[in-house]
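For consistency, the fold was encoded as tokens, which produced the following:
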Amino acid sequence: MRLGLFALLILLSATATAQAADDEVKLRAGTTLRGTVSGMTATEVSLDMAAGQKRQVPVNEIDAISFAAEPAEMKLVRGAIANGNYENAITTLDKIEAESGARPEIKQDMQFYKALCRSRMALAGNGDVKDAGRHMRAFVTSAANNYHYLHAAETLADLFAAIGDFDRAIEQYAAIERAPWPDYKMRGGVAKGRVLAAQKKYPEALAAFDAVLKLAGDASTPQAGEQKLAAELGKATCLAATGDPDTAIKLVQEVIDKAGPEDKEINGRAYVTLGNCYRQKQGAAKDALLAYLHVDLLYNKNREAHAEALANLAKLWNEIGKPERAAQATQLLKEAYANSVWAK
């Protein structure tokens, strides 16, 4: 009996050790696959599993990968990033280093997360966009076969767009459009449309948004649904800028009705767009003011939208004769988003 118990303990110990040594691929659906990552491209991860099973996992289904023998603190890093605590994530990353001879995937993970945190902070107005871009570009250049590549290319494009380098932004967004999944193609198309609209190339931007909406008919994932709403907001921007604010306002209101009040990301962008559309309509300054106030009071977690809303509120408060409110909006903008383009 004692021998049998001893053998069982050895078996359990060996099993636990084997599981601890596994790579873990966490899927967006909530399940976790375990095995050894034996290959990787920008669109697919090869996983060798138990009993000789092999599985090809599409990147758009992956939430994150934890690698065997990676620093234990990497779980803290991923958790901090998921919660938007980018400064904490960078602080943790700066304290750890991959062991000598560590797998390339582990080193690339650390490089990517550092670049991502710097980029997210810079885009939110809390860092240097060009410096963040150098770090993210280094990853994109060196890790074309990493499963983070498409995420990195999209983030690099956002950084290019933030400094007005629109040609290179569109070049990076094209990599997202070439991805094999409809929701990624839509994301690339929406981003391209926004860049074109920022350059006031409204016919080209409208064509990009319409192409996304056409593609949305073949896509049913929540991510695709989000991109459809984003494309409708982009289309509204173009319509308002080209002389049809009424149709644009109606389209934005439809997006707000579809999104629901709990969707802070899309609502932040929607109410900014609504305010911008009202700004294009004569005599609608107070309607625009109310739209921007929605962002300031309810959807300020969307930092990009909040910065834009504050910049517009500062102008509108002055226009309606309330300079003290304008000064408050300007002060908050400069304090919270000092490096944002809206604070310049």
